[in-house]
Design goal:
Layout lengths: L9 H23 L6 H6 L6 H12 L2 H14 L5 H27 L4 H9 L2 H34 L5 H50 L1 H12 L9 H16 L5 H9 L3 H11 L2 H19 L11 H12 L4 H38 L5 H25 L4 H12 L3 H9 L5 H23 L13 H27 L1
Helix pairs in contact: 1-8, 1-15, 3-8, 3-11, 3-12, 3-15, 4-7, 4-13, 4-15, 5-10, 5-12, 5-13, 6-7, 6-18, 7-8, 7-15, 7-16, 7-17, 7-19, 8-9, 8-13, 8-15, 8-16, 9-13, 13-14, 15-16, 17-20, 19-20
Length: 493
Amino acid sequence: MKSETALLGPGGITFLGIYILSLILIGWFGKKARKENSLSDFYLAGRGMGLLVLFLTLYATQYSGNTLVGFAGRAYREGYQALVLVTLLSAAVGAFIVYAPRLYRLSKKHKFITPADYVHFRFKNNKLTLFASSLCLMALANYILTNLKAIGYIVVSVTGGVVPFAYGVIALSLVMVIYETMGGMRSVAWTDSLQGIILMIGVITIFITIQIEYGGFEFIYNVIQESNPTKFIPPTFTQKLSWLSTLCLGFFGISIYPHAVQRIYSANNEKTLKRSIQIMAFMPIVTTLFMVVVGLTALALFPGLDRQASEGATLLVLKDLSQRGAIGTGMMVLFLSATIAAIMSTVDSALLSMSSIITKDFYTRLRPSKSQAELTRIGKMISWAIMAFSVYLAIVLPQTIWRLLEIKLELLIQVSPAIFLGLYFKKITSKSILWGMTFGTLFAVSTMVANKLGVDIPAKPFGVHAGVWGLIINLAIVFILEKINQSNNEEVI
């Protein structure tokens, strides 16, 4: 079914298509630059990323379709309270500062490939390692799913519905899996660098254009205050708890995304890593804040959209700017390229990370005698299988992008005690971490499932995400078991 107007004409669509296909060429260059046929070279680019590439790949990976589509949609639905999203990403950078340098030093010394490699090195517990790997996989699968849905919405709007949602998802997924399996992390990081630059320019440009064309914050406030005054009501105590809960998702969840951890491993030295994180500290302001403003602009211009329609807030603003003559084809192509770039840079990273976890943490335990070259080949095959299944789910599942983002973080944060406590408390035992992770995950999953099935249990009890309650239970169990263990040791002495 075609929409009324396409965001781009034939020329713009052709240019965008050429840009997307050029990523395959970058993937080929990444393959030619390969130094050895090993897991370390394929999944970590030989641990040789410099400052510019490391920063841009971190930036392009962290700011994805969730930011450019999902965050604007949430700002549309919640009004100014969506500003908490700026601190969500800031919290993630704060967590990097806390744990990344120490983890990097260990990864350099002990040759980690996946996040679970650290967990196994620290706790020497196979059950804990596999459990942590499984949670990472679920989070990554969800991450790919949210971004594939976002890319489908964009393709429909770009072409006016000439290319249906499903076909758009399939076509761009095929491009991503081709260049990802060509050169691994090296290809992904190089494409991320290009995509990161385009993303940054696009977001800043659209923000400035909104200020000039509509009158900026004053226009947004006046219109929303008149048409949707409830969007400016001060938050209740429960909503404030929800804000705090969201910050926890950022600090303990986003910061330990497996593909982010693997970029920590990929830095060529610790100084490069620290400088990249320092630059990342400024990005929530010039990316997340700007996209919240886009969502609020959509609320002012197009009030009354339902939850599903609000996911297209960014594209509605672009259409309106185009119709006003505020932006031409070049600027439209730039921003749409930025949006698609952000999504692709996230999906390819998550895909690579999923492939590495399945290959390194699961397959090699079953087939320890396989050579590095054979394992790399298996990893590429796994990437194709993962992408095919993810495309299918993106097409058939109805969840909004923001809710899918929350679900994956609520699972992923259950792994955070293994990393944060493991790095800073030498006496923490694997038994405590395993039981904490188990009960925290069970609580989060059971609460979300019960809510989905219609049981009178909120997804956010008292405004706090089920996953954050799970993390509290997780940490409480770790603390209790460690106290019991300490008491038993004192009695023995």
